[in-house]
Amino acid sequence: MRPLYTIRQFFNDMRRQKLRTALTTFGIFWGTCSIILLFAFGKGIKESQLKAQKGLGENIAIFWPGITSKDYQGLPHGRRIFFTEEDIVMVKERAQKVDRISPEYSKWNVPMKAGKANTLRNIVGVWPEFGEMRNLIPASGSRFLNQSDQNDKRRVVFIGDKLKTDLFGEGEAVGQIVQLGGVPFTVVGVMQKKAQDNSYNGRDASKAFIPASTFKTMYSSRYLNDFVMQSKPVEPMKAARAEVLQIMAARYRFDPTDEEALACWDVTEGTRFLDSFFSAFQWFLVGIGIATLITGAIGVSNIMNVVLEERTKEIGIKMALGARKSFILGQFIVETLMITAIGGIAGFVFAYAIVAIFPALKLEDYVGTPTINLAAAIGMTALLGVIGFIAGIFPARRAANLEPVKALKLF
Known about the structure:
This protein is an alpha+beta fold and 411 residues long. 55% of the residues lie in helices and 16% in strands.
């Protein structure tokens, strides 16, 4: 009977103090909702940004020709280093920490024509492994360049999804002929749409990729624009970069520690920075929600103190009739936990509903897709219980420690 009595007493108090109880419950509701939503959206934004960062490629580094900054073996600094496709073949054969590597030729403003559609775009000459390194995933029914295309110098092209739309509209592109600088090429693949927030010579969606051997034959190119390297999963990128630099230094006679001889963009550094930044940002948002929740807990404690003042006589009568301290203590703690539970459950349900309907708004490109973490929800439940207990224990102890005679004298 005691639990039923406590619950009945709780709802009686709520009716007497409707506004105060509603505001206190709303504080717990908003704190719970804030933590869950901030954590969910923080995670969604983080994953969205990392996905866009990885659109350029995962665990890769891009190298460009540079200028030596150190004297070496009697040679002066300030020498410009150019590299060729033969250098990349050598690095691929000798490097132990490199998983994939590809040269990259590039030519801008090449006239492209398919039917009546005309445009000027960037043509890139690469090896087949370039597609895997740079996350150029073929759409259904298409493919990227393969080794036979490279060996036979085939006139085949893989195009970005935006370029495909500009040239072929909504029609089928695979198997069609496109003129690249007046030379007919067969489209063998179309890139699947991807998120890409950064680039070094334009977005992949607007490019045309052809075999490096075909590019070299068409434009008589000797020197590369750059080359892309991917380290092995078990090897740190820094060690792989140092190995590449050492091999190229031996060939072109520059100091292996001279990082300016080959300009390098290590994409993994940007990924690590974004991961750390958004993790800190996510926890900052959660901290704001926890602060809101603590504010709500203070409100719960205050309202229970008010309830204590209003029910002092009642408590005195109960204790005079033989009610134990444990009964009074438990009653106040249960009432506090009920306020916390009602606000917490309502906040969780509201936050879950927002996360559930959010995909229908089609805003994933801006803030990602929010997801509720199960571990975070369990932690949230535990935190609510602790906050509710702490908020109720002090007024509950005051109530339990009242002396019946003094309590009755107050009225």
